[in-house]
Amino acid sequence: MKYLLPITVFLLMIAIGMSLKPSELLRHWRKLMGWAWLRLLAATFIIPPMVAMLIERTLPLDWGEVVGLFLLSVVPGAPLTSRVAEKRGFDLQIAASYQVSSALLMPLMIPLVVYASGRLYNRNIWIPPRLLFVHIAENQFLPLLIGLGMMTFATAFANKIRRPLTMVGNIMLLTVIVLMLWKMRATLAAITPWVIVGAVILAVCSILAITLLLRAEPETNKTVALCNANRHVGLALLLAGQYARARSAAPAIACYALVAPLVMLAYARMVRPKQAAQAKVA
Asked: Distance (Å, rounded) from C-alpha 27 to C-alpha 144?
């Protein structure tokens, strides 16, 4: 299990890299000018942590549950965000643009947001930017660049293996999810109703933050809103163990991993009613 999940994500990220078009990524970045970037920054890195702190003040959660939800709120852009968006009928290139830009900003924003938030609770928590950069480079940038490189320099081979690679990756991912649910059954049993409520609020507010603040083109708004709810569960677990010293945060993080896809599915069906109907008929 220790190596199966990283290998699975790595393979799927290579397949995503084969589907990306650098010119499209740059085009979507150029659309966001000036204040749009600041609004995107706030909706991605500032609003979710503020929501998490409001949840802490309004719901009867213990410290570990609060830490779990807070760490989720500061880590956007899970590795398979682009894949999730595409499967829900959204634009892969827009999702990838958001994922890459979030990943580039994470080593800067996460340490600052965590440190500033910790000071509000009289705690000094500093996460080295280098740790985040290495983690993101290994799990996101490296496989994406491999996929892009294969598509550029070995196009015929990349086109030949892209679908089988995706199929193998999907089968492996399903296997990993089943094994992880079984392994985490004790952790999942510790989830309380209030944690579920908190996870739903965080996911919904992550979507609303983009919807209300970004004010970009409709397709960009819808795609990025969905992506913003897909927080980086793996990184949140890593930070909880190494820096927050709150291993009891695992149930809240696991709860979000189960709740967020349901919230994202509901949102996708709301903004993609025609596509959902066509899929049902098919």
From this structure: 18
Neighbours of 126 (CB within 10 A): 11
pLDDT digit string (tens) for 87-101?
888 999 999 989 989
**Residue of 174, 195, 234, 161 lying closest to 66 (CA atoms):** 195
Residue ranges and CATH numbers for the domains of the chain are 4-270 (1.20.1530.20)
As a whole number of angstroms, the distance between CA 254 and CA 238 comes to: 13
Which residue's entry shows tokens 């503020």? 50
Residue range 164-218, pLDDT digits in tens: 988 888 888 888 888 888 887 887 888 889 999 999 999 999 999 999 998 888 8
The Cα-based distances of 274 to 36, 165, 265, 269, 280 in angstroms read: 29, 30, 14, 9, 10
Q: How many CB atoms lie within 10 A of CB 122?
A: 6
DSSP letters for 90-118:
--HHHHHHHHHHHHHHHHHHHHHHHHHHH
Q: Which residue has the tokens 């509000």?
A: 120
